[in-house]
Write a structure and sequence with these properties.
Shape: globular
Helix content: over 70%
Order of helices and strands: HHHHHHHHHHH
Largest sheet: none
Number of helices: 11
Radius of gyration: 23 Å
Length: 309
């Protein structure tokens, strides 16, 4: 039986998961509709659709695992189920961060205007950059999956070894958790570099505008600021997401830790829920689509009320 605090945290985590699925589902729906209407798929549309679908899968997997752990923990005693969940988590987690990193690089290349030859080379060969990131993703999977297999094997041995060996394997498991997320950390570092370069570009552009003493409303500055806000929000949400994942992993070593587990779960779901809403608000096309959808829902509710009266 859950306590009051555990029930509240589980309800918050469930609401976050539902909002994350709805927000990302809306992003995927709008971009798929545009692709069908235009009979072609753009780079940004492909990235947004992939990001939304990977996050929806990640959210469903995490919330399903959480409910199983809380209400039917015996199902997780099977090594096969643990192995499958671990593979799915590594796949969708790294895929989600890969799409988010690709989205940041796409906006960075479109917005920033450096004269350095390396940047000009990247701008002309953006497809090569995405291919390189795909290569990094596959290499990360090749390193992560053997580590996951080793972790599952050690968990099988956990029930038959001595307590000293169990403590040793706990410390090893934490180290292996870091290696499993090496790809995520790589994409996070790329995101930090993109944010740093965006800030430099904004500073240089602002300095140029001050020298020109132009009183005209500068659209380029607004675009820079909006992009920096989106990237910084992603960085903050990613740190919260990683903190939540770390807490849920540490709960494996703490008996009777449902409250701590649910706190970690609530922190984990902040990222897929809030970042999808930020993307909708930052993208004019998605924002107009969301406003139009809300207006249609409001009109349909008014129509139902009129028919009832």
């Amino acid at each position: 039986m859950l306590s009051a605090a555990e029930g509240v945290l589980l309800s918050i985590a469930t609401c976050e998961a539902v909002l994350g699925v709805l927000g990302n589902g809306f992003i995927a729906f709008v971009n798929c509709t545009d692709c069908t209407r235009n009979k072609r798929i753009s780079q940004i549309g492909c990235i947004l659709i992939g990001l939304a679908i990977s996050r929806i899968c990640l959210v469903w997997m995490l919330i399903s695992e959480a409910y199983i752990k809380i209400f039917s923990p015996k199902l997780l005693s099977s090594a096969n189920i643990i192995e499958h969940i671990s593979y799915l988590w590594v796949t969708f987690s790294q895929l989600s961060f890969w799409f988010a990193t690709s989205l940041s690089i796409f906006y960075f290349v479109k917005i920033v205007n450096f004269s350095h030859y390396i940047f000009l080379w990247l701008k002309r060969r953006i497809n090569t950059v995405f291919l390189f990131l795909i290569g990094c993703l596959f290499v990360s999977w090749l390193f992560s999956f053997p580590v996951v297999a080793k972790m599952v094997k050690e968990k099988k041995m956990q029930f038959i070894n001595t307590s000293w060996l169990i403590r040793l394997k706990k410390s090893e498991l934490i180290v292996q958790f870091v290696f499993t997320n090496a790809g995520v950390f790589l994409f996070f570092m790329i995101m930090l570099i993109v944010c740093f370069l965006l800030i430099i570009s904004l500073w240089r552009h602002s300095k140029k505008m001050q020298l020109s003493e132009s009183g005209v409303r500068d659209l380029n500055t607004e675009v820079h600021v909006k992009a920096i806000k989106v990237v910084i929000s992603f960085i903050i949400l990613f740190i919260l997401h990683l903190t939540g994942i770390t807490i849920t992993v540490l709960c494996l070593f703490i008996p009777e830790s449902n409250l701590l587990f649910m706190f970690g779960l609530t922190t984990t779901f902040i990222y897929p829920c809030c970042h999808s809403l930020i993307l909708i608000l930052a993208n004019s096309r998605l924002k107009h689509g969301a406003v139009r959808t809300l207006q249609q829902l409001k009109c349909s509710e008014k129509g139902k009320d009129l028919r009832v009266t």
